[in-house]
Structures
1.
Amino acid sequence: MPPVFLEHPSSLEHETGPHPERPARMVAIERELTSRGWLGFERMRSPVIERSALEAVHPEAYVEAIRRVSLAGGGHLDPDTVVSEGSFDAALHAAGGAVRLVELVLDGEADFAFSAHRPPGHHALPQRAMGFCLFNSVAVAARYALGRCGLDRVMILDWDVHHGNGTNDIFHASDQVLFVSIHQSPLYPGTGRASDVGSGDGRGFTVNVPVPPGSGDPLYESLVQHVVVPLGRSFEPQLVLISAGYDAHRDDVLAGCEVTEAGFAAMARAMRRLCSSLGAPLGAVLEGGYALGALARSVAATMEAFVGPPALADEDGAVGVAPLAREARERLSEYWGALG
Ligand SMILES: [Zn+2]
């Protein structure tokens, strides 16, 4: 089955003015992938999300409020989060792409899928837009997989440099979604402390791994290999979604991390190996990433890692256990014995 790249021209109609989260991001990705023959991916237009699937995360009144603001010409929902006339439709397609991705990989119609739209989603709370995000596409997709597709266990790895506070909160009390976020701290939105492990039945199923500014490929790769992958082996997800933001890149000015294309590729290969060992389908949903060239090359590096030649089996463990990875394992061993 060919891998699929989900997109929609409405992503260009979400107009944000002078803003880092801008239509040129999509243009840069398209240009890079065109120059590389789309890496063998089949391009597919994302449908609009079904209202019932969207409202499984966002209450109807909130969806209607976003629709009204957008159709009235838009405005600022907060100092960072802008809506234009085209934004509501763009956000419906962004969530629709993430849901279509779930259907494609679960039905075996695609070995892997990448859903690339604007606006991003991981900061959006059920009733509040924030951090450039209107609807939480990855959360809507995960809930669709659990509800409509009948899955019991979904894992979300969020490697955007900002904490995915929306996804964190939406599944805070759930033991059906293992949410793992690696993010710079301190940084917007200020949430995602290591001590936030979820609540109720969901204790231990929210995993926050804050990293300091300056963190680069070695630390990110170590955290994925020695924390994220062992968590996945213990949880045994039936589906893995990556909230794939690229603002941890060293060229990105919205944060201070130093990840490169090679680092994103290594993390993607590690997740591919995890999924193939579990027989779990894998997909990625675009979040942030504001340095156009770095964003485009990193998206391509991720896609290439998923469809390129399989990595050597002994690549697992090739990166040493960083002190922060050791600390995270010790902390998490209370909930996940295998990490002790
Ligand atoms: Zn971000």
2.
Amino acid sequence: MAIDKNRTRELLDSVDEFFDSVVGGLPGEVVRFLKTAIMGPAFQEIRKLIEESRPPVLFLIGRSGHGKSSLINGLAGREAAPVGDIKPTTPESTAYLIHFEEQFSAWQVIDSRGFFESTRPDGAPDSNAIDHLLADIREHKPDVIMHVISAPEIRNLGHDLQVHERIMKQIRTESGMDVPTIVVLNKADTLGNPREWPPEVHARKAALIQDALNYMGNDILRTRTHPIDRNVSIRGYGTDDPSRPGIIPACSLPEDAWNLDTLSDFIGGHLPESALLDFYQALRRKEQLRKISTALIKRFAVIASGIGASPAPLSDFVVLTPLQILMITMVGGLSCRPVSRETAHEYLSAVGINLITAGGARYVTRQLLKFIPFAGWAAAGSIAGSSTYALGKAAEAYFFSGNAATPDTFRKDWDRLRPELEGT
Ligand SMILES: Nc1nc2c(ncn2[C@@H]2O[C@H](COP(=O)(O)OP(=O)(O)OP(=O)(O)O)[C@@H](O)[C@H]2O)c(=O)[nH]1
Ligand SMILES: [Mg+2]
């Protein structure tokens, strides 16, 4: 399970009703304030995260047989594309959607096989092939291009990269689109002796991968490079060139798969925010989803701190409970729990708060406030912010690490973060 857009809409409706029941007796002016300054922005955050999210568009280029289909299957963890069949090379692409039903996510993949085969022997690309590629890029507007090269063949394929560079320049000039291309040195296992694998336990293999990376960076791309992982430089290089930001070795064979997490994190680093949820949910990458969760918690805390500007002081924070339940549920959803109020209940009962049997929202708020000393209305904004942040982080620790920490563990962090966040 994960975040399901339909369930999220239901959740927003139920939180909306809950909010109406909580603010029942308050003056109209205060209710209006809470709606526009607190719940409105919170709903907006969720809509931005969920409803504006879309599948990432991943575009594969590279010679036939170098492992484009295998790579996409390896990344997706399923057999989405047929592997290994010999096809006639045509300059046409196939576009398909990979559905990750359980994760309510999808990736759009465009496989542009055959492009480099149709470049002329003198290295000049066939103009027909260029037109096709240009049309494909214009049509599909990829977020990221992966240029898949069989690692043992890089010394013969320098000109493919030059051809690619010329085409990308043309696309930039014509349409202003600047799509990053990640160079993937696939079949890293077949450098030297294929039996020596993985490179972590075969120093000779590791040295060959390092050589291939250096050759690609220094001799072909001629750009400055830096290891993506300083401790393990064979995991790939980042570059100073935004149009070719990385060179990453990989093995896509299911039984010998290697370094695909480095590649997927690198892809994620070059996707727009709207494509991140689908990309990482599909991969069930908890660490990455946890970053999305932390960003959401910070935004909710900033929104909650706006309560200090209420036109009339509120007797307690019960009005924040719907906001906090919404936040806890979404944090649970990002950790692949179902998006429903039960998810929030699960956390609250884990820290000793029973939302269902005890006297409703007001009781929950009091329970939550046990963790947070209330120091009068003057400090209300800052307390609302810190309590919301602390509650979100505690729920995050529970859902992502199974650690039933209480919110007060996290309150100090907020004091450190606040000046920076409230200024934004
Ligand atoms: N040893 C090794 N073999 C691989 C790797 N990746 C793919 N292969 C093999 O290479 C062959 C071609 O792989 P495909 O994924 O079909 O290549 P492709 O680039 O999609 O080829 P076209 O669809 O014809 O353009 C298959 O036999 C794969 O099993 C790898 O990392 N290591
Ligand atoms: Mg293929």
